[in-house]
Amino acid sequence: WPDNKNPSPYEILQTTPSEFSSRKLKITYYKLARLYHPDSNSHGHICSSNGALLSDKTKAERFKMVVSAYDILRDPKKKVIFDRFGIGWTGVDVTSGYSSAQPSQASHAVYRNHQSDEAFWNAGTWEDYQEHKRRSDSGAFKEQCDNTRWTYLSYVVGGMCVAAFIQIMAILDRTEAHYRYPTGSTVKSLYDLDLVLLNYGWGFAKMDRISRFLAHRDSS
């Protein structure tokens, strides 16, 4: 990092007007953005040239300056205006204590997700980064809502399946009880059938059947 308090975009991105290269600019930007980005340095330690550890506020300010410097030098129109008139670059004194951005407390998992996110690393301005972060947060919230909805639906379906199983078992129990324990009318029917099969106690010989017929005829 440059030693002076208010480095120029060229100094921050480690190049000069005479040695300027878009390819080198992009490589340097990626390297510095990864180094100072709030989501990538929350678990790391970065030392200054004198060996002192950088605070999260300083790292956040440096990241903002890297983004602002890249925004100027990557745009040919802004670069020409800056080269000729020095317009477009305000700079930030990272030792003054001023900070317009709070360092992120995002986890290392978030950083790993950002590593493969082209839009994240191609954010050319601080506003681009904030817009990308807003969209990412919105997408994460939507995904969380979807997961919650599916979890709730799985509980509902599971509960319905359990209730249906209990109902089926109750119906089977009642059906089994119906056939296992005959009602009064069923018992009487079985008794009458037994009497018929036994010929009402008259026997099964020819004369027994005739006698039973005559007895029933006279009684009626």
TrEMBL record:
<dbReference type="InterPro" id="IPR001623">
    <property type="entry name" value="DnaJ_domain"/>
</dbReference>
<protein>
    <submittedName>
        <fullName>DnaJ-domain-containing protein</fullName>
    </submittedName>
</protein>
<dbReference type="InterPro" id="IPR036869">
    <property type="entry name" value="J_dom_sf"/>
</dbReference>
<dbReference type="GO" id="GO:0051087">
    <property type="term" value="F:protein-folding chaperone binding"/>
</dbReference>
<keyword id="KW-0812">Transmembrane</keyword>
<dbReference type="InterPro" id="IPR051948">
    <property type="entry name" value="Hsp70_co-chaperone_J-domain"/>
</dbReference>
<keyword id="KW-0472">Membrane</keyword>
<dbReference type="GO" id="GO:0005783">
    <property type="term" value="C:endoplasmic reticulum"/>
</dbReference>
<dbReference type="Pfam" id="PF00226">
    <property type="entry name" value="DnaJ"/>
</dbReference>
<dbReference type="GO" id="GO:0051787">
    <property type="term" value="F:misfolded protein binding"/>
</dbReference>
<feature type="transmembrane region" description="Helical">
    <location>
        <begin position="152"/>
        <end position="172"/>
    </location>
</feature>
<dbReference type="GO" id="GO:0036503">
    <property type="term" value="P:ERAD pathway"/>
</dbReference>
<feature type="domain" description="J">
    <location>
        <begin position="8"/>
        <end position="86"/>
    </location>
</feature>
<keyword id="KW-1133">Transmembrane helix</keyword>
<dbReference type="InterPro" id="IPR018253">
    <property type="entry name" value="DnaJ_domain_CS"/>
</dbReference>
<keyword id="KW-0143">Chaperone</keyword>
